[in-house]
Specification:
The chain is mainly alpha-helical. The protein contains six helices and no strands. α3 crosses α6 and α5 packs parallel to α6.
C-alpha cells in the first residue's frame, strides 16, 4: 500500500507544479499585453483630474494599487480599466477586480469618504485612495 502511494503522490506533485507554471506563464502574458506608463505620465493624468493632488501622493497610491493587484507599477496606467484587470485575473492577480471595489468601500466606510460612483479606471481608484488618506490625516 505504501508503494502505490508514492508514485501517486509524485504524479500529483508534478501535475500541481505544471499547473502552477502554466498559470504563471498565462499571468505574465496577460501583464505583458497591458500598456505601460511612466510616473510622470501617470502624475499628469491624475493631476488633470485633481490638480490639488501632490505628485508624491499620486505615486504612493499607484504603488499601493500595484501591490494590491499584483502587477508591476509601470503597468498600472491611469486609463487602465478595472474590467481589463479581469482579463488577467484568472491568471493569478493578487486581488480580483471586484475585491478592489470592496476594498475601497471598506476604507471609505472607515473614514466617511464616499467611494461610490463611477470607478471604471485605475485613475478613479487612485483619486479615491488619496481622498481616503487625506481624510485619515485630518481626523
Amino acid at each position: 500500500m505504501g508503494g502505490s502511494l508514492g508514485p501517486a503522490l509524485i504524479i500529483g506533485l508534478v501535475v500541481a507544479i505544471c499547473a502552477g507554471s502554466l498559470i504563471e506563464l498565462s499571468r505574465q502574458r496577460g501583464i505583458r499585453q497591458l500598456p505601460s506608463q511612466t510616473d510622470d505620465e501617470f502624475i499628469s493624468a491624475i493631476e488633470a483630474l485633481r490638480p490639488d493632488f501632490d505628485s508624491d501622493e499620486i505615486v504612493r497610491e499607484r504603488l499601493r494599487v500595484s501591490n494590491i493587484v499584483g502587477i508591476p507599477k509601470s503597468r498600472v496606467t491611469s486609463d487602465l480599466r478595472i474590467s481589463d484587470l479581469g482579463k488577467i485575473s484568472m491568471s493569478g492577480l493578487a486581488m480580483q477586480p471586484g475585491d478592489l471595489a470592496e476594498y475601497l468601500q471598506r476604507l471609505g466606510g472607515q473614514t466617511g469618504v464616499d467611494v461610490h460612483g463611477n470607478i471604471d479606471k485605475i485613475a478613479d481608484v487612485v483619486v479615491r485612495l488619496i481622498d481616503i488618506e487625506r481624510a485619515k490625516a485630518s481626523e
